[in-house]
Specification:
Helices cover 43% and strands 18% of the residues. By secondary structure, the protein is an alpha/beta fold. The protein has a seven-stranded parallel β-sheet with strand order 3-2-1-4-5-6-9, with helices on both faces. Strands 7-8 form a two-stranded antiparallel ribbon.
Length: 276
């Protein structure tokens, strides 16, 4: 290994399945201790997988749009693992329709999940990070910490039918670039990874019988993609295929590693060259 994350602790939201789970497992593989968060029992399964592979993890289920959860996540990392070195704001889902059919609730829900929740988590982490960094700097030590916010090519390019999702993901880019300027003095790299179409349950083909749905706060939200959209994506992508969660996690790992210690305020697109 060219580097290790041993002695580092991380929070990964949406880590119960899909890309988030792959990120949590990748960080643990490189030695980090991970607080895995998701809505339901899935974090416990992710924790068990990490532990069975010899890593350290703590499951903390909860809705990231709950205003009380961010502080619980920060406190859990510090109390269980002694520090907070990496924050990956990954949790999210899609709730799509064209703008004339989109409700206020739909639009605000996407902003809450994709933009407000990451803001609250970083705000909750700010006190511990700032005070710890000041002490380390006073001792003549430079300890780099990492924030990776997840955006999308829908946020950088826009995408028809995703006014709410795209707005949230575009906002994440602004949050990332602003925090990079505010937290550079505390030796924190703040970057974003923008995904293209990654093979998860959110992009499973919609069949004539209908598509899948996820349960969020008692609401069934339809997910999936039209087969013709997936066919277009594969043909339009220079690499000729969709990405895997493990490949998505690799891009995030770069920003969590010492290899990115002099990179901040940047957006890395992990989309196989695909643009909407």
């Amino acid at each position: 290994m060219p580097f290790t994350l041993s002695g580092k602790s991380a929070i990964v939201t949406g880590a119960g399945r899909g890309i988030g789970r792959a990120i949590a497992q990748k960080l643990a593989e490189y030695g980090a201790s991970v607080v895995v968060n998701d809505l339901d029992a899935a974090p416990a399964e992710a924790e068990a997988a990490i532990r069975s592979a010899g890593g350290a993890a703590l499951a903390l289920a909860g809705d990231i749009t709950d205003p009380a959860l961010p502080q619980r996540l920060v406190d859990a990392a510090v109390e269980r693992f002694g520090s907070l070195d990496i924050v990956v704001n990954n949790a999210g889902y899609t709730w799509d329709t064209v703008i004339q059919k989109m409700t206020d609730e739909q639009f605000q829900t996407m902003l809450n999940v994709h933009l407000v929740a990451p803001f609250r988590i970083l705000r909750a982490a700010s006190g511990w990070i700032r005070e710890t960094a000041k002490r380390e700097i006073g001792e003549g030590r430079r300890v780099m910490r990492k924030v990776v916010n997840i955006t999308s090519i829908a946020g950088t390019d826009g995408n028809a039918g995703q006014a709410a999702y795209s707005s949230g993901k575009a906002g994440v880019v602004g949050l990332t670039k602003t925090l990079a300027k505010e937290w550079g003095r505390y030796n924190v790299n703040v970057n974003a990874v923008g995904f293209g179409i990654i093979e998860t349950r959110l992009v499973q083909p919609i069949t004539p019988e209908g598509g899948a749905a996820i349960d969020v706060q008692g609401r069934k939200v339809p997910v999936g993609a039209q087969p013709k959209t997936l066919e277009w994506a594969r043909s339009a992508c220079p690499l000729g295929r969709l990405g895997t969660p493990e490949e998505a996690a690799g891009a995030v790992l770069f920003f969590c590693s010492p290899l990115s210690d002099y990179v901040t305020g940047e957006v890395l697109i992990c989309g196989g060259g695909l643009h909407f």
